[in-house]
Amino acid sequence: MGISSELLAFLSILVLVFAAAWADPLVPALIIFGDSVADAGNNNNLTTPIKANFPPYGRDFVTHRPTGRFCNGKLTTDFTALPFTAEYLGFTSYPPAYLSPEAEGQNLLTGVNFASAASGYLDYTPFLYNTLSLTWQLNYYRQYQNEVVSMVGSNNTSAIFSGAIHLLSAGTSDFIQNYYINPLLRIYSPDQFSNILIRSYSTFIQNLYALGARRIGVTNLPPIGCLPAAITMFGSGTNECVPRLNQDAIYFNNKLNSTSQDLKNRLPGLKLVVFNIFQPLLDMIMNPGDNGFFESRRACCGTGILETSVLCNSRSVGTCTNATGYVFWDGFHPSEAANEVLAGDLLQQGFDLIS
Ligand SMILES: *[C@@H]1O[C@H](CO)[C@@H](O)[C@H](O)[C@H]1NC(C)=O
Ligand SMILES: *[C@@H]1O[C@H](CO)[C@@H](O)[C@H](O)[C@H]1NC(C)=O
Ligand SMILES: *[C@@H]1O[C@H](CO)[C@@H](O)[C@H](O)[C@H]1NC(C)=O
Ligand SMILES: *[C@@H]1O[C@H](CO)[C@@H](O)[C@H](O)[C@H]1NC(C)=O
Ligand SMILES: *[C@@H]1O[C@H](CO)[C@@H](O)[C@H](O)[C@H]1NC(C)=O
Predict the structure, then answer these.
(1) Which ligand is nearest to the CA of 323?
(2) What span, in angstroms and rounded, lies between the C-alpha atoms of 351 and 321?
């Protein structure tokens, strides 16, 4: 990132924060769907091995406690939530995980989080790990809308949901935790598999639109070939990003862009933004020093052979003491420091959603 785009990102954030603090509400609520990139604790309430509710997860979070977030600290969505909810509405918390005890009463009115680690565009992906598919997340969203109706009436509810920003993050688990390791899916080429995911994406957006959502942001696939776990599993002993996997992500991302454009053309009043996280994350990985990082291959926690099974836990050996210089916290997930950089990019790309 050059100086000028850094400055631009900074100014964008400043504008958002000031607008947030002093002007009329930008958006009434922030509602989150997707996978471990955005899960704020839903999997804590599920019977699944895919959890992050134990140390050292959360050690750098506000509370210094594990919350279920797959990170040492805040997620990208936590950083983006700040200007929208915490600052401007005067609440001090992030949209709560829908299955957590915090998701009740007034908290519901500013948004909730349905994301569940190991979820994906394909319902079959979370089925393998017993986590919440997007279909289930949408069922919960319907239930949630009814709860809001009973609190503020249907007119106010429509206003909340048409004004709310909806964020979706999915696709990584479909590839890494399903397609690449599941012989049953190898009948499809990566390209055919992408088409299946994209059809599911399109259906999801149309369903969300039918339920009143008008502002939706979706993240594209990160450079999945550079995730430390992917390098361990598919890198054939090298310590380099796996080009084949990154190429699959690029093809998927192209389809995501064109399908999103089609959806915007077809659905009147829909604001739909594809957030490009592929490029900023790849930049951090390839030129870590430009953003103040020194390590972009090895994860801070649970790296090495173990990361394919138990990821990272209190018994993991060699966990770094200071994750600030690491792009990756564990084998699959960026560190809080990297999430903060990504959030700056997202806010910059997200103006269309609030205009
Ligand atoms: C989730 O787990 C918490 C703590 O165990 C419990 O209090 C809560 O009722 C659970 N929520 C749901 C929706 O199951
Ligand atoms: C619904 O919105 C109106 C005006 O926007 C407000 O006066 C009213 O208090 C709201 N109703 C509830 C139940 O919050
Ligand atoms: C809801 O909005 C409609 C159309 O604007 C209006 O006719 C109706 O009276 C409103 N209902 C309530 C309960 O405010
Ligand atoms: C998709 O669109 C975004 C925003 O217009 C752009 O930044 C990105 O490069 C595009 N990505 C692909 C893979 O075409
Ligand atoms: C953690 O590392 C960063 C740079 O990587 C450094 O700026 C910071 O001071 C370190 N924090 C502690 C507590 O050592």
Answers:
(1) 5
(2) 37
Quick: pLDDT tens for 13-26.
555 554 444 445 57
292 C-beta neighbours (distance < 10 Å), count: 11
Residue 23 burial (CB count, 10 A)? 9
| Omega prior to 183 cis, within 30 of 0 | no
> How many separate helices (H) and strands (E) can be counted in the chain?
12, 4
Maximum alpha-carbon separation in the chain: 59
Query: What Å distances lie between residue 23 and 84, 144, 344, 347, 350, CA to CA?
Result: 12, 28, 21, 18, 18
* DSSP structural state of residue 333: S
Q: At what angle do helices 190-210 and 134-163 cross, to 10 degrees?
A: 40
Sorted by where each begins, the domain ranges of the chain are 5-354
Active site residue 330: yes
CA distance 21 to 14: 10
Q: What is the pTM of this model?
A: 0.90
Architecture of domain 5-354: 3-Layer(aba) Sandwich (3.40)
| Atom 10 of ligand 3, nearest CA residue | 155
Q: How far apart are CA 272 and CA 268, in angstroms?
A: 11
DSSP state of 295: B
- Cα dihedral across residues 341, 243, 72, 317: positive or negative: negative
**Is there a catalytic annotation at residue 64?**
no
Backbone angles phi, psi at 199, to 5 degrees: -60, -40
The answer, yes or no, to whether any atom of ligand 4 lies below 6 A from the CB of 257, is yes
CB 232 within 8 A of CB 307: yes
Question: What is the tens place of the pLDDT at every residue in 48-80?
Answer: 999 999 999 999 998 899 999 999 999 998 887
Nearest ligand to the C-alpha atom of residue 72: 5
Tell me the CA–centroid distance for residue 276 and ligand 4, in Å: 6
